[in-house]
């Protein structure tokens, strides 16, 4: 194949990639749409940087740390997280008017929670699907580590309860 | 800074161009991370992230990263395209200033959009980061192209490698006395320091100026683009004046 043809194929390939990527960004299901709705906290796991999850979850230090961290981010221990389309975030207990807002940034991998326009906390979205949301929160108090928050979509849990 | 090409460029030309463009790249990168949680001069990292997202089956995130890489590619492509296609059609300075002005417009667009239209949606974020990556591609394409790949200002991986190689070469006396190597060392060090200073400046500046940081970057780019315009106009004026003095009739 001549080089003239090859370079034309090259240009077409780049153009197709660009169109494909743009269309996917515009029309594919994105984390911002997926997150909208009601999510129930299933698990709060604390993982220290220098410990295996198994040993970390059993230690006494772990429990003390957990209490301290939860105290610092009490506002975010919501129980049920309701993400509304207009960017407001509510918990089942607090109901309306807690002033929390949510925004997704980066390539859809950062969930920022704000209160009165100021950032309260930024979570890494580790996994997001129709039924499951896993958030990671980096902390650096007495030791470095990650809090893993596992949430499940409310509808899924109700359906499971009905089945049982 | 912009009017000379390839081997005709002096160390001073490269130091000025490298220092100012690296400063603006550092500013854009830090401002982008602050506002959008996304780097604009991390293409190596984005290739890895692209592969990682695909392996996880995250098609949306993969497409976003691919879009960013492609916009950087297109920026660099366009920069060199204007330079080589402009040869013989218009002056060398104009060919070199066009990519800087396109970069200026891209960053200005991001600043204005953030100030007047931004609704904090994810889709807006992805396209604004893409505009910044396009701007960085234009800049890297321009500096690499006109300096014979000596000046690269948006990515410091290669620069850090080159700097490390030079420092190790300086362990031999004859290399320490080699002017070309010493000049290269000064240039790379200037770029590295300018990039970090730009990042620091943007990080601190964002606290006070917020989106104004992008306008400040635009001001630096204007200085880069208009510096040679001023010099060329001044030389032209001096030439006309001298000609009038020597041939009054």
Automatic annotation (TrEMBL), chain A:
<keyword id="KW-0472">Membrane</keyword>
<feature type="transmembrane region" description="Helical">
    <location>
        <begin position="6"/>
        <end position="27"/>
    </location>
</feature>
<keyword id="KW-0812">Transmembrane</keyword>
<keyword id="KW-1133">Transmembrane helix</keyword>
<protein>
    <recommendedName>
        <fullName>Lipocalin-like protein</fullName>
    </recommendedName>
</protein>
UniProtKB/TrEMBL annotation, chain B:
<keyword id="KW-1133">Transmembrane helix</keyword>
<keyword id="KW-0812">Transmembrane</keyword>
<dbReference type="Pfam" id="PF06912">
    <property type="entry name" value="DUF1275"/>
</dbReference>
<dbReference type="InterPro" id="IPR010699">
    <property type="entry name" value="DUF1275"/>
</dbReference>
<protein>
    <submittedName>
        <fullName>Uncharacterized membrane protein YoaK (UPF0700 family)</fullName>
    </submittedName>
</protein>
<feature type="transmembrane region" description="Helical">
    <location>
        <begin position="93"/>
        <end position="114"/>
    </location>
</feature>
<feature type="transmembrane region" description="Helical">
    <location>
        <begin position="20"/>
        <end position="39"/>
    </location>
</feature>
<feature type="transmembrane region" description="Helical">
    <location>
        <begin position="214"/>
        <end position="233"/>
    </location>
</feature>
<feature type="transmembrane region" description="Helical">
    <location>
        <begin position="185"/>
        <end position="208"/>
    </location>
</feature>
<keyword id="KW-0472">Membrane</keyword>
<feature type="transmembrane region" description="Helical">
    <location>
        <begin position="59"/>
        <end position="81"/>
    </location>
</feature>
<feature type="transmembrane region" description="Helical">
    <location>
        <begin position="126"/>
        <end position="146"/>
    </location>
</feature>
């Amino acid at each position: 194949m001549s080089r003239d043809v090859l370079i034309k194929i090259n240009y077409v390939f780049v153009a197709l990639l660009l169109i494909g990527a743009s269309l996917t960004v515009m029309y594919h299901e994105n984390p911002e749409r997926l997150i909208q709705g009601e999510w129930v906290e299933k698990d709060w796991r604390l993982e220290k940087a220098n410990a295996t999850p198994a040993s970390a979850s059993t230690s006494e230090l772990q429990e003390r740390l957990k209490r301290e961290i939860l105290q610092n981010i009490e506002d975010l221990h919501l129980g049920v997280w309701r993400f509304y389309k207009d960017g407001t975030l509510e918990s089942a207990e607090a109901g309306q008017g807690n002033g929390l807002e949510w925004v997704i940034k980066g390539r859809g991998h950062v969930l920022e929670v704000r209160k009165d326009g100021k950032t309260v906390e930024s979570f890494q979205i580790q996994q997001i699907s129709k039924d499951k949301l896993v958030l990671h929160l980096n902390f650096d108090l007495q030791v470095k580590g990650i809090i893993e928050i596992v949430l499940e979509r409310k509808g899924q849990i109700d359906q499971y309860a009905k089945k049982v | 800074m912009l009017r000379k090409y390839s081997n005709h460029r002096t160390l001073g030309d490269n130091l000025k161009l490298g220092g100012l463009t690296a400063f603006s790249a550092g500013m854009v990168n830090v401002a982008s991370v602050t506002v959008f949680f996304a780097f604009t001069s991390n293409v190596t990292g984005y290739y890895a992230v692209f592969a990682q997202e695909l392996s996880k089956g995250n098609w949306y995130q993969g497409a976003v990263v691919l879009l960013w890489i492609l916009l950087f590619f297109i920026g660099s492509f366009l920069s060199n395209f204007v330079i080589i296609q402009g040869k013989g059609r218009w002056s060398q300075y104009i060919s070199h200033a066009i990519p800087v002005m396109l970069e200026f417009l891209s960053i200005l667009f991001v600043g204005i959009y953030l100030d007047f239209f931004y609704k904090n949606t994810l889709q807006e974020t992805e396209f604004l980061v893409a505009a910044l990556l396009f701007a960085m591609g234009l800049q890297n394409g321009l500096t690499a192209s006109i300096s014979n790949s000596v000046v690269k200002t948006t990515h410091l991986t290669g620069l850090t490698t080159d700097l490390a190689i030079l420092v190790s070469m300086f362990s031999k006396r004859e290399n320490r006395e080699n002017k070309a190597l010493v000049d290269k060392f000064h240039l790379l060090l200037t770029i590295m320091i300018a990039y970090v200073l730009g990042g620091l400046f943007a990080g601190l500046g964002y606290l006070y100026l917020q989106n104004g940081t992008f306008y400040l970057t635009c001001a630096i780019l204007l200085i880069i683009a208009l510096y040679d315009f001023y010099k060329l106009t001044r030389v032209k004026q001096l030439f006309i004046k001298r000609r009038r003095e020597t041939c009054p009739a």
